[in-house]
Amino acid sequence: MANQNTLPLYQKVWIKHTFSRTVDSLILFLLLTLLSYRLFSHHHFSFPWFLALLCESWFTFTWITTISTKWTPAKTTTFLDRLFLRIGELPQVDVFVTTADPVLEPPIITINTVLSLLALDYPANKLACYVSDDGCSPITFYALVEAIKFAKLWVPFCKKYNVQVRAPFRYFSEKAKANNSNLPQFKKEWLKMKKEYGQLCSKIQNASQELNTFPLVGEFAVFSKTQPRNHPTIIEVIWENKENLTDGVPHLIYIAREKRPRHPHHYKAGAMNVLTRVSGLMTNAPFILNVDCDMYVNNPKIVQHALCILLDSKGEKEVAFVQCPQRFYDTVKDDAYGNQLVALPMYIGGGFAGLQGIIYAGTNCFHRRKVIYGLSPDDDIQNVKKNYGFTGGKLSQKRRKRLFGALEGFVQSVDDALEEMTFTPNDNLFKFLDLEAARKVASCDYECNTAWGKQVGWLYGSTSEDVLTGLEMHTKGWRSEVCSPDPMAFMGCSPQDNLGQMAQHKRWSSGLFDIFVSSHCPYIGTLFGKLQFRECLAYVWITNWALRSLFEIFYALLPAYCIFTNSSFLPNKEPGMWIPTTLFVTYNVASLTEHLISGLSARTWWNNLRMGRITTMTSCFFGFLDIVFKRFRISDTVFEITKKDQPSSGDENVGRFVFNESPIFVAGTTILFIELIALAISWRGWQNGNDRAYGLGEVFCSAFVVLCYMPFLKGLFGKGKYGIPFCTKLKAIVFAYLVFYACTSIVTN
Ligand SMILES: O=c1ccn([C@@H]2O[C@H](COP(=O)(O)OP(=O)(O)O[C@H]3O[C@H](CO)[C@@H](O)[C@H](O)[C@H]3O)[C@@H](O)[C@H]2O)c(=O)[nH]1
Ligand SMILES: [Mn+2]
């Protein structure tokens, strides 16, 4: 029998999706057939024919990257029982939470996340929770101060009754069948807890309403004379687990890093780096769990599950980070805005997992501190020390400044982290706490002329800092794993309307494309680094999302162009027409099947398909433009924070499209108008029985685009926020006419 101590702590199995593989290959075959048909049909050669060839070549290339990513999906299972046999003592974990705006991210959501983290089923003396507040808001701070009082009741309650959902707003709102509900003692405590939570909510609610009149006295005095973008560092230890109790409440530290108008603050990546340094000085745990303010813990044992992977004898040497899936609660029915990301992660995410590893998604992720500090998998510590310029345990003065900044105490903590010295906890973590030093590492100047954001920490330069940082780790040769135990590890909120969803897609597509055109481009990672080839293709798939918009827009306008100019891009009257027809049918049946297999409705499939077309042609197109402007130094990209709403249940308008004056909607409305004009012209042509070069194919394609843009069509007639603003319609009509005019005049000239 194998020694219990040598058994692996997790297992990875590769799944065979024979059906999926067959259908995907068939689609590829059809795409290639279509391309060759186009190349060999000399009699068809014309502008639309070549444009179609160009777009379809792109789609084929994208499809190759898709198939390659999906081909060998994998799943991991963790063995908790073996973890306890293997290690005597659980390691320390530092938990990072980021919040940035008390209005878009209501403090009540943030404190629920924090409460669920403090109540993790993990020894309290091995956890420390650091909250970064980029909004520098006294209300957020107040909410945390109040939350910790509640935590002292909540944490023991959760542990005593083994509560699963430890975010109180979910626990009390949910039809959550209270466990042990028969016990009178439980009933009593449950009621008390509910009452206490209610009081906590109303306190925070009241404070939020008095945003401008909130008294900045006592411990809040530090917030006087601060502005969100202009203030010194504020670090407050809200709670310290002084007695080092395993069943107490973990440390809670509030950090608002210094912000000055002239200093770029690098958004979330900047916040994460400050959290890394401040925690390095305080607890310096070897593992870091990072969650966004809106992601609460849904599985209180998740840290142990992740540790199974990180501490496994193989995982320890190879795995840089463990990513848990992002799932959302109270989602809009049938995923009306196509943002629940259920089917996609299942196929694409599973595929990534079967390669070098899943991308880092910015939240719900466990990191190794030493990897964050730039360690490569094949670097042994002595080597690193040589490379970094450590001599006799000390970094040479010059290199130390260049890499980690000038603070002696912090460099010492890096040295310890690289050696994993902190694996066994100090008896009193805060004994030597030097707040002055902590403020220094959180200041604007600290990173000047250092490697932070370049080789060390979260990398700067993209609004998808998460994917960039993960890609760099993969390029160094690290792997990553997905950890998705049952129940789901974390749950969060997703945008509750299409505005949030479209802004999010714009940020992602531009951030990802920014990576593609930077020196971190996946191709470079494969050529000069250790990024595996298929992992590279998977990253290419994800990072050129914005580029897809161009081809999709051209392709969507192609049928209209043909109708305007009486030409064709499809072999309408020839037997060759079966190729695009079969392709269209097969592709859609395949994606519908994938949705149904994932347990989703047909309506969800349609919504995803439709929203995919809309966001790619609008949000992602603007994401693309953002990067073009950035590269030509016309304007820089900004991280627009998504609004975190608590869904209003029973609202009959949930799922409806809302509009504003954003240029994104001008683009969408223009596309709709162009297709409508095309349909009208074809209708007239049909009635007059004119001699037409285009056929049913082009008309069908045009109609299909209109069908995808149905929310816009409804928006033309909608009222209030559900209607497209008049000036947007006007601009769109002008643009549509210009396109029409340009098309027809090219041909007549
Ligand atoms: O200047 C900033 C801006 C944002 N954030 C935080 O970043 C997180 C993510 O922001 P959010 O608006 O919720 O963006 P999402 O689109 O929901 O985030 C996804 O995409 C981001 C990258 O674009 C990742 O950083 C996130 O982890 C990932 O969940 C939130 O906790 C914010 O508080 C900051 O700390 N500082
Ligand atoms: Mn979010």
Q: Could you give a short description of this structure?
A:
The chain is of the alpha/beta class and 749 residues long. It is built from 28 helices and 14 strands. The chain has an eight-stranded mixed sheet with strand order 5-6-4-3-7-10-9-13, sandwiched between helices.
Map the helices and strands:
Elements: E1 10-14, H1 18-40, H2 47-70, E2 74-78, H3 80-86, E3 93-99, H4 107-118, E4 127-133, H5 138-160, H6 168-173, H7 184-209, E5 234-239, E6 251-256, H8 267-282, E7 287-292, E8 295-297, H9 302-311, H10 315-318, E9 319-323, H11 343-354, E10 365-368, H12 369-372, H13 381-388, E11 390-391, E12 394-395, H14 397-404, H15 408-418, H16 435-441, H17 465-475, E13 479-482, E14 490-492, H18 498-516, H19 522-528, H20 533-543, H21 545-565, H22 578-597, H23 602-617, H24 619-631, H25 663-688, H26 696-708, H27 710-717, H28 726-748
Parallel strand pairs: 3-4, 3-7, 4-6, 9-13
Antiparallel strand pairs: 1-2, 5-6, 7-10, 8-14, 9-10, 11-12
Pfam families: Cellulose_synt
Keywords: Cell wall biogenesis/degradation, Glycosyltransferase, Membrane, Transferase, Transmembrane, Transmembrane helix
Organism: Flemingia macrophylla
